[in-house]
Amino acid sequence: MASGLIQQEFQTYFSRLGDTWDLEKQFISELEEFACIMYGYQRVKSVNTVQALMLKMVGKDELIKTASKIDLSKLPPCKHSLVPHICWVNY
Known about the structure:
0% strand; 54% helix; mainly alpha
């Protein structure tokens, strides 16, 4: 999909925010896909997967330690945290 079409598609999603109190699961999934793109993962549709992929870059043993020197603030929110944020923005 061309970049312009992607931008237009997400503009449509954001313009729908605030239209209704109840958000459909599909709509939340579309916004979750946008969050993945923001973190540089255009082909991934789950923020939980993006988190896992970003953490795998830490090291071979897959354990996060103080020596890992990873900035956890640069990780996307997990879906459990993202959904309330979407609802708050919708409000």
